[in-house]
Amino acid sequence: MAVKKIGQQTIQFQNPPKAISAYSIVGPKEGQGPLNIWFDEVLEDDMCQEKSFEKAEGRMLRNTIISAMKKCKKTPKDIDYMLGGDLLNQLMSTSYTARDLSIPFFGLYGACSTMTESISLASVLIDGGFADHVIAATSSHFSTAERQFRFPLEHGNQRPPTAQWTVTGSGALILSSEGSGPMVTHITTGKVVDYGISDVNNMGAAMAPAAADTIATHLSDTGRMPDFYDMILTGDLGEVGKKIVLDMLMGKGFSIEKVYNDCGLMIFDNSKQDTHSGGSGCGCSAAVFCGYIYKQLQSKKVKNILLVSTGALLSTISTQQGESIPGIAHAAVFSTA
Amino acid sequence: MNMKKNQLNKKYNKYVKDISPKPNYLANSIKAFVTGGLVCVFGFAIQKLIISRGIDKETAGTIVIILLVCLSQLLTGFGVYDKLAKYAGAGLIVPITGFANSVVAPAMEYKREGIVLGVGAKLFSLAGPVLVCGYSAAVVIGIIYTLIY
């Protein structure tokens, strides 16, 4: 019997895993944003002295994971599993990172929701007694995402105001069965939700219904009110998606406005940094959580956080074939109590 | 069920359209008009200059086109063109300068995948569709023209 499952889609852990270490690296543009002092490392050059942007992203992710391990004095041999992914085909950056680190590896693709997807499964592995130390890590890079999903970098074009800016950044979180740190107490796994948006320049609108669905399900599964949380954070919905989530949840009877924010809006100052609707990418919620939020939890400035990374499950082929964009959102609860 | 879902999706799409910020069409049009016009004036001035040196009009036109293409390629190579085009929009994308940019940008981007399979395969990834559709349209119009006259 599934004794740890509560409600429709939520798991309540009996032995909540502890987040014993977190590390974040971001690119130069993110380093000029409002959260700059919170990131563990800001790159001066987003090529990381590599020959290609893909190799640069891999190197950034590898350094993030190595530094996260160093912070809690672990070596790859102490780690049972590494879970993670990125936005590139066949998870290029993460797979090559896993090759170099030589840690047992599950590659995950949840588009920009991959961070909480990794945290969810890592927590299940630990709570179930299958592992003691698991790494959850993701990355994204503006220049690799741009060439895979949009246009060559030097191509002259105009982005509409609803477009988002892929974050160059990565975050790694080490979850452990023992030790101290914020605990993952619940996860709520999202369903794929598609409201028929096919505009690739308005991903916030495509993902927002999934986020609203996961947040509403989480609140009713746990019987909690929104103000139980110090912050409810979505991954990368931007201005448009944030408004939709607030509207949709209001329609379902949840007023989350006071505690709600979006990592894509926190990482950039849209008006100054020309990032239009806000940041996006796997690295967005990963870097904001591992950089900023984790430190707030550690210093007990905040006690309960609901992190809801959001993903747009489109591909370049689905776009060309005129398909709509399915969205997904996974939630994880971090608590210091 | 399907019809109901379709209706819901339509309603959602309309709602999203209503709340999404729109590009400033008027300002963008003015910028495009002015920059596009400046490109033309520049081209025309060069053409006049060349003609005044005793070269016939047609050859002068060809030289102007080559010059504009080269300039656009240079600016793309120096990483300036995308910034100019972001400001000017159609003013720089529609003239032949935009075409040059759309060939050089992939060439720079895909050189890491090799000369043949990278640059060779992707060189016309942006300009290719324009060429194919342009030539096809020219053929169709040509046939219609021949039939009428």
List the helices and strands and how they pair.
The complex is a heterodimer of chains A (337) and B (149).
Chain A: E1 5-6, E2 10-12, E3 18-26, H1 28-31, E4 41-42, H2 53-71, E5 81-85, H3 92-101, E6 105-107, H4 114-127, E7 133-140, H5 142-149, E8 165-166, E9 169-176, E10 183-188, H6 203-222, E11 231-234, H7 238-251, E12 260-262, H8 263-267, H9 270-273, E13 279-280, H10 282-298, E14 304-312, H11 316-320, E15 327-335
Parallel strand pairs in A: 3-4, 5-6, 5-7, 8-13, 11-12, 11-14
Antiparallel strand pairs in A: 1-2, 2-10, 3-9, 7-9, 10-15, 14-15
Helix pairs in contact in A: 2-3, 6-7
Chain B: H1 2-19, H2 25-52, H3 57-77, H4 81-88, H5 90-93, H6 96-109, H7 115-122, H8 127-148
Query: How are helices and strands ordered from N to C of chain B?
Result: HHHHHHHH
- Tally of distinct domains of chain A: 2
Which fold name is given in CATH as the topology of the largest domain in chain A?
Peroxisomal Thiolase, Chain A, domain 1
| Biggest protein-protein contact in the assembly | A-B, 27 and 36 residues
CATH architecture of the largest domain in chain A: 3-Layer(aba) Sandwich
Describe the biggest sheet of chain A?
7 strands, mixed
CATH H-level superfamily of the largest domain in chain A: Stage V sporulation protein AD
Largest sheet of chain B: none
Helix content, binned percent of chain A: 25-40%
DSSP E strands of chain B, number: 0
What sort of overall outline of chain A do the alpha carbons produce when their principal axes are compared? Answer: globular
Which residues of chain B sit in consecutive blocks of at least 5 with pLDDT less than 50?
Answer: none
Residue windows where pLDDT falls under 50 for at least 5 positions of chain A: none
Average pLDDT metric of chain A: 97
Number of helices of chain A: 11
Strand coverage percent of chain B: under 5%
